[in-house]
Structure prediction request, 294 residues.
Amino acid sequence: MLNTVDHIPVLSDPFLLKVRSGILDLKERPLVMGIVNVTPDSFSDGGRYLQRHDAVAHVKEMIAQGADIIDVGGESTRPGSDPVDADEELRRVLPVIEAIREFSDIPVSIDTCKAVVARGALEAGADIINDVSGLRFDPEMAELAGERRTPVVIMHMKGMPKTMQKNPYYDDVVAEVREFFKDRIGHVRARGIESIILDPGIGFGKRLQDNLRLLQSLSVFADLGYPLLVGTSRKSFIGMITGDEAEERLGGTITSSLVAVMKGARIVRVHDVREAVQALRVLEAINQPDRWEA
Prediction:
């Protein structure tokens, strides 16, 4: 059965995402997605924003620093993490999303694999579904996104978070991820979803060399015609190269994020918003020096 993007025409501009505040333009410039983990066990900031007031204060800080999107998650997907039930996940994320909507119309994405959590988050004010399973784990997720005309992030992950880093293997990681994207695009397009963002899933069931090859070859995925999101922030592959702990990987995060943008990424997902925004502005200035002539 053919289920690829080659046989499904694009009906709208995939780089213009409809959100509650209007149109999010991914063609104008690369965007920064700020991370809010409302969890006790995320690999880098677990427990730091578990309380509502701490999470909201962090969101306000990231908005002031120039974040374009806020990504709220209530279940850790770090390697070896255990799943969280839907009720607990909703208890963590809904108060934060509701609070954001009291002071800002910034686009909010809900980082979840569960349709019931995504539905609750959308009703609370979220705009985008960010599903690390690529809308595979919950068959109702694609139906929900199609019904609500919600933009979705389709991420590639080999296995489950609990076991994904136990000897992952690829014959050709770039080709396999590309075929995965083609299959998932066909699947979700058939359910009425047109606003699709692709995420190669750096660090999700990947060896060091797999992560590096994916970053080196991002243009292969950009050629599919949909915007790319890349999240390298503080991830372990940086530590494998430099020997640094998670909180010391800012330099590697910025370098890999800039490389991702130079190879076609339109969104970078980061913990350190101020530094990412600054780096992207300098990159933009270098690419457009005429704008800075007196």
In short: The longest strand covers residues 31-37. DSSP finds ten helices and ten strands in the chain.
